[in-house]
Automatic annotation (TrEMBL):
The keyword Lipid metabolism is annotated on this UniProt entry: yes
GO biological process: ceramide catabolic process
Protein name in the entry: Neutral ceramidase
Keywords: Hydrolase, Lipid metabolism, Metal-binding, Signal, Sphingolipid metabolism, Zinc
One annotated GO molecular function: metal ion binding
Residues the entry annotates as binding Zn(2+): 136, 245, 481, 521
UniProt source species: Branchiostoma floridae
């Protein structure tokens, strides 16, 4: 080991990844709640709260369908933010999951929410332990995102829409904080049939046959329900995760609505909050979003509006026109369809909530968050093959819309060729670089948004990925709309990662869709080749999903492994991820700390790794995990990393 014998890394760089301290590792089997021994005490501190986020009800463009003619013109029912605080009673590590009745979450929205929480609670709630997830209703006011593409149809930023969301989300978290009590959380799951269909079945069929054979259908039917009870067993709240678009209300609707998931929440809350008006009462029920990217609530399937015949399967057109191909819901009209799909979700969730046999969650509360430049991720498939993500770009089929809300002109889904006329129009706006076209192939680029900066950025490069853990449940908060198979692959990836680090075999992973940031769609590599609407809207290119899998795998391992150690020595594997080979329990490592400025409170940490002769050759890094304290005494976890370095014989 002539190259490196006593490598000393001074690690003081604070990164954006914040990780909670694991306090305990206690797991219990499934049981009937009535059989629980109350002498054991509650596993968590929990709080729930609700806030009104209803925006301007007149003459503001609605977000979701990107249709300039869809203007708000009244209210069907109000929109709400529903917050759930989960704390570890042993060390007060806390997390907040918030389900919001809006189209998506913008970065600027979360930034402002965290900013407003700080004077109320100090650093108790920050960007790392707060998760904002939208239900993806298409019937709420637009204009609350900071990227050009998402504000085109609303003609820019709409302060009234933004303020209503911020104030309502903050109010829901504040109410949850004020209501924190000792309690427990129970998990149940089951299948809900006849409430969703796949709106891009030809893309789904392009996934490997062996992979498709592992599942019963081309959409996820599984619903996961969490039951929140206080220490006396009284119900406090419920979260349901089920994958289905909130597009029961179509683009002709002008009434503000939480769509099918918002209605399901109203039904559940009305059932639990006897004699309370809608949106009031102490029990809070959230019907959160999951991997709904290619999943529609309009279960009668796509038909031609002029003939009543099925649409062309490959292009979703009728006589060559996308506008005529629409998938109706199960009801007599869109309001009736909203009712039906909402009632189905409510009924299944109530059944799972009331079931005798449920899994009692117990164990650590943890969280992890990382900011990533998704336009420049190298994906390592094996030791000899890697690929990169791309700058954001939208494909031709994006303009074709979907069978929930078709586009206009002569755009069609499944377009891998483009069009000379629209290329000419595109080039007037911005011609994509040759590098960008090659990176996104076979997507024909309609808008090279990653190369468009006037008057400011059109779509995000930097996104945040986040994980929450409540005992045996890991919540993967994703910054976009994962397709059915993409969600399945990510769940499997995260589950493998946490199980490899010692979590129990019964650990469940759920996808919390459209969380914290909106980066459009995420399809599988195979689905991307077909270039349906979802593939055309996968903005970082064909390897987007693989990049997210690699990132979430590493984040999951970090979240689980960082408990109880000040350092790790990690070796790079063939797939580009790192495995921990030493921690501060190892003979070969040392962690030293000293105060360098008592007045300002500065200190310095030194991590030493003495490389033993039998250390395998490879690429390594050293990481340090610590906590910083500001002048107010608020403590925040951080992680620092050395550069990557080579160890050779």
């Amino acid at each position: 080991m002539a190259a490196l014998t006593n490598f000393v890394a001074f690690v003081v760089l604070a990164l954006s990844l914040f990780l909670a301290v694991q306090a305990r590792n206690r797991h219990r089997p499934s049981l009937d709640y009535e059989d629980r021994n109350e002498e054991d005490g509650p596993n968590y501190l929990i709080g729930v709260g609700r806030g009104d986020v209803t925006g301007p009800a007149a003459e503001v463009n609605m977000m979701g369908y990107a249709n300039p003619s869809q203007q708000s013109s009244g209210i069907h029912f109000r929109q709400f933010s529903r917050a759930f605080i989960v704390m570890d009673p042993q060390n007060t590590t806390r997390t907040v999951f918030v389900s919001v009745d809006c189209a998506m979450i913008s970065q600027i929205l979360k930034i402002e929410v965290v900013k407003k929480l700080k004077p109320l609670f100090g650093n108790a709630y920050n960007e790392s332990n707060v998760c904002l997830s939208s239900i993806h209703t298409h019937s709420g006011p637009a204009g609350f995102l900071q990227y050009v593409l998402f504000d085109v149809t609303s003609l820019g930023f709409v302060r009234e829409s933004f303020d209503a969301l911020v104030d309502g989300i903050v109010a829901s978290i504040q109410r949850a904080h004020d209501n924190v009590v000792p309690g427990d959380i129970y998990l149940n799951q089951g299948e809900l049939q006849d409430a969703n269909i796949n709106r891009s079945p030809t893309a789904y069929l392009n996934n490997p046959e062996a992979e498709r054979a592992k599942y019963d259908g081309n959409t996820d039917k599984n619903m996961v329900v969490l039951k929140f009870v206080d220490q006396h067993g009284a119900g406090m709240g419920m979260i349901s995760w089920f994958a289905v678009h909130c597009t029961s209300m179509n683009f002709t609707n002008g009434l503000i609505s939480g769509d099918n998931k918002g209605y399901a929440s109203l039904l559940f809350e009305a059932d639990m909050n006897t004699d309370s008006l809608a949106g009031q009462g102490s029990f809070v029920a959230a019907f959160a979003q999951s991997n709904e990217g290619d999943v529609s609530p309009n279960t009668r399937g796509p038909h031609c509006q002029d003939t009543g015949l099925p649409c062309d399967l490959e292009t979703s057109t009728c006589n060559g026109k996308s506008e005529l191909c629409v998938s109706p819901g199960p009801g007599v009209d869109m309001i009736d369809s909203t009712r039906i799909i909402g009632e189905k979700q409510y009924s299944k969730a109530k059944e799972l909530y009331n079931a005798d046999m449920q899994v009692e969650l117990s164990g650590p509360v943890q969280f992890a968050l990382q900011f990533v430049d998704m336009s420049d991720v190298t994906v390592h498939f094996n030791s000899s093959y890697s690929a990169k993500t791309c700058k954001p770009a939208m494909g031709y089929s994006f303009a074709a819309g979907t069978t929930d809300g078709p586009g206009s002109f002569d755009f069609t889904q499944g377009d891998t060729d483009g069009n000379p006329f629209w290329n000419l129009i595109r080039n007037i706006i911005k011609r994509p670089s040759a590098e960008e076209e090659a990176c996104h192939a076979p997507k024909p680029i309609l808008l090279p948004t990653g190369e468009m900066t006037f008057p400011y950025a059109w779509q995000p490069d930097i996104v945040d990925i986040q994980l929450l853990r409540w005992g045996q449940l890991v919540v993967a908060a994703v910054p976009g709309e994962f397709s059915t198979m993409s969600g399945r692959r990510l769940r499997d990836t995260v589950q493998r990662a946490v199980l490899s680090k010692g979590l129990p075999d019964d650990t469940e992973v759920v996808i919390a869709g459209l969380s914290n940031t909106y980066a459009d769609y995420i399809t599988t590599y195979e689905e991307y080749q077909v270039q349906r609407y979802e593939g055309a809207s996968t903005i970082y290119g064909p390897h987007t999903l693989a990049a997210f899998q690699q990132l979430y795998s590493q984040l999951a391992q970090d979240m689980v492994m960082l408990d109880g150690t000040f350092l790790t020595v990690e070796r790079k594997k063939d797939d580009g991820t790192f495995e921990v080979v030493h921690n501060d329990a190892s003979w070969d490592t040392m962690f030293k700390w000293k105060r360098t400025n008592p007045v300002l409170g500065y200190s310095e940490a030194t991590v030493t790794w003495t490389i033993s002769p039998d250390t395998p050759s490879g690429t390594y890094r050293i990481r340090h995990f610590g906590h910083s304290k500001n002048l107010l005494g608020e403590i925040t976890p951080f992680v620092g990393s050395s550069r990557q370095f080579t160890v050779s014989a």
